[in-house]
Design a protein that fits this description.
single chain; alpha/beta; 12 helices; hydrolase; Uracil-DNA_glycosylase-like_sf
């Protein structure tokens, strides 16, 4: 059997992205303005029905629609179906779970629900029942946490990937395997650390979470850190550090510099380092990540 070429692997990766985004067919190359289309349909529904309605077979098919034969229709008749949204747009919500537009009320509701959780189990239940984040509509599972809730060291990434979405645990793919080796190098494993993500649902196609999605999920990860109450917090990548510390520096400038993270009654030591996924793409940077982990081991020994 011939080996797959680089072009074939790129096509497979693109198809996987489309599948994760909810695309199941391809029609045309022109983007569809769904807001304008919805407004036109609403205007048509508001108009009175004509005395001599146009037969279905004579009705024109709108541009960028596909005609799919329906069971029970006469030959030659078809009903137009909307084309899929272009790649990069949120996947359509499944029936019974309408998408929501993020606003201040939803963020306030997330903050209220997160604050009401008195334990990690209650916080997980709150996330499972929370419908204010549209990422939940496309993700297979909630990726809450892994490791020891009583650990002194907590590691926080940005968002789950494909493998994490399937297994429901953070950092279980290739980047997670590298993270395990990095922890083992300083004498730790998953039984002695606690791992979570700033966003607990996988974005479609592994895209970057939007600022609105991150802001909606922020009260939950903030409460999660408070309930774990670690001595040391490690941000894996700049995204989680920017979300929870409010800093704007890039990871190259930020990494290795110790900061403080405020808890309920005290502060935890905090540091940012390279995300394992970045280290897989840039292996030369592992030497700097190794320095960061040596510093983490030293801080744990001193605290």
């Amino acid at each position: 059997m011939s080996q797959p070429t680089a072009g074939n692997r790129q096509i497979e990766a693109l198809l996987e992205f489309y599948q994760a985004a909810g695309v199941d067919c391809f029609v045309g190359e022109t983007a569809v303005d769904w807001f304008q289309l919805s407004e036109q349909q609403a205007q048509q529904r508001a108009r009175p029905a004509p005395s001599n309605p146009v037969p279905v077979s004579a009705a024109p098919v709108a541009q960028n629609f596909v005609a799919a034969p329906q069971t029970g229709q006469a030959p030659g008749q078809s009903r137009p179906q909307p084309a899929p949204a272009p790649s990069g747009t949120p996947a359509p919500a499944p029936a019974g779970a309408p998408a929501v537009v993020p606003d201040r009320e939803i963020i306030a509701a997330a903050r209220q629900k997160a604050t009401s959780a008195a334990s990690l189990d209650e916080l997980r239940a709150c996330l499972e029942a929370f419908d204010g984040c549209n990422l939940k509509l496309t993700a297979k599972s909630l990726v809450f946490a892994d490791g020891n809730p009583s650990a002194r060291l907590m590691l926080i990434g940005e968002a789950p990937g494909r493998d994490e979405d399937i297994q429901g645990k953070p950092f279980v793919g290739r980047s997670g395997q590298l993270l395990d080796r990095m922890l083992a190098a300083i004498g730790l494993d998953r039984s002695s650390v606690y791992i979570a993500n700033a966003v607990p649902w996988r974005p479609p196609g592994n895209r970057t979470p939007t600022p609105q999605e991150t802001e909606i999920c922020k009260p939950f990860i903030t409460r999660q850190i408070e309930l774990v109450d670690p001595d040391v917090v490690v941000f894996l990548g700049a995204a989680s550090a920017k979300t929870l510390l409010g800093v704007q520096d890039g990871i190259r400038k930020m990494r290795g510099h110790w900061m403080t993270y405020p808890l309920v009654n005290r502060s935890a030591a905090a540091v940012a380092t390279y995300h394992p996924a970045y280290l897989l793409r840039s292996p030369l940077e592992k030497r700097l990540a190794w320095r960061d982990f040596l510093s983490i081991r030293e801080r744990l020994g001193a605290s």
